[in-house]
Amino acid sequence: MTWLRLDGVTRRFGGKDALSGLSLDVEQGEFIALLGPSGCGKSTALNCLAGLLPLSEGSIWQDDVRLDTLPPERRGFGMVFQSYALFPHLSVRRNIAFGLQMRRLPRAEVRRRTDEAIKLVQLEEHAGKLPGQLSGGQQQRVAIARAVVLEPSLVLMDEPLSNLDAKLRLEMRTEIRRLHQSLGLTTVYVTHDQEEALSMADRLVVLRDGRVQQIGTPEELHTRPANRHVADFMGYRNLLPMTVTAVTPAVVTVEGAGLTLRGTGVGTLAVGDEVVAAVRPEDLQVGPDGVPVTVEVVEYQGRELAVEARTAQGTMLHLRAVERPTPGDRITVVADPARVLVFPA
Ligand code: ATP
């Protein structure tokens, strides 16, 4: 049962598509991330949903009611922005209560719901303070409480964590996910951070130049990116231009820049095709009978070592190692053919 439907949503600025034909079905309670690099159309999509931007083409439906012709306030959505957009002269409590007061709800109800929202985002100790007296993370929690206190049918979030430091960003990810689950919210969340999207969302929509590249669960995008652009975004750091030299139903063999790799073809490929072989660093390992390379850079990354090494022909490979090699070392690297994806160039 589709609860919210975007059908061919398109928005142009001066004849150029900022967002082109976005179609998406959202289930109630889902957490959807819109993901892509700067300028790909994420905010345009969110603003079209919110009603802050009229569509050039397409339509938006909720339970068979056409939404895109309604003004923002009649859509019943909550919004959380990167900039928090709090009232600086109002206390935390009054910021959160503001929307309820605007709806002229009885005072007792305003107080009860405001108290609940304050508790939900764990700001009880700070309820009397002004936004300027809070940390960035606390301010963002106020912004979230202010949105959810109105019990919106859908919460739209535009890069809400990008002004926070790395540690707080991680904490707030969990926090937002927790709120999403405990309140049964439906959320559309915009981010350019692939890790953030993968860790939070039930499904991701990857955009590039205003066009949908792929819609899928984190696992689908991770293991089966639809094209090299999605692969690039999903952390396939080795994107190697090569040529197909053999094709069997199971394995495609590709060669280029002194490398021979075996992988899985995405789409139909034939001998002689120009392709891009995509491999994640964690799927390239030091091993016998592999490609000889010379180590150039070694870096700690969590529990593993991130290694950059160059082939004799000068191609740089990104891989992982468990034991620390030294720059200048000659090693050989191997890849599991099941984890090498071969895309048409
Ligand atoms: P960012 O992460 O940098 O905010 P984004 O993915 O959210 O990027 P959008 O803001 O949706 O991207 O912009 C998509 C494209 O539309 C860009 O090329 C942008 O320059 C253009 N664009 C967005 N808003 C306008 C506007 N009001 N007038 C003209 N062009 C616009």
Automatic annotation (TrEMBL):
InterPro entries: AAA+_ATPase, ABC_SmlMolc_Importer, ABC_transporter-like_ATP-bd, ABC_transporter-like_CS, Mo/tungstate-bd_C_term_dom, NA-bd_OB-fold, P-loop_NTPase, Transp-assoc_OB_typ2. GO terms for molecular function: ABC-type transporter activity; ATP binding; ATP hydrolysis activity. Keywords: ATP-binding, Nucleotide-binding, Transport. It holds the Pfam family ABC_tran. GO terms for cellular component: ATP-binding cassette (ABC) transporter complex. Residues 4-234 form the ABC transporter domain. The keyword Nucleotide-binding applies. This is ABC transporter ATP-binding protein. It comes from Paractinoplanes tereljensis.
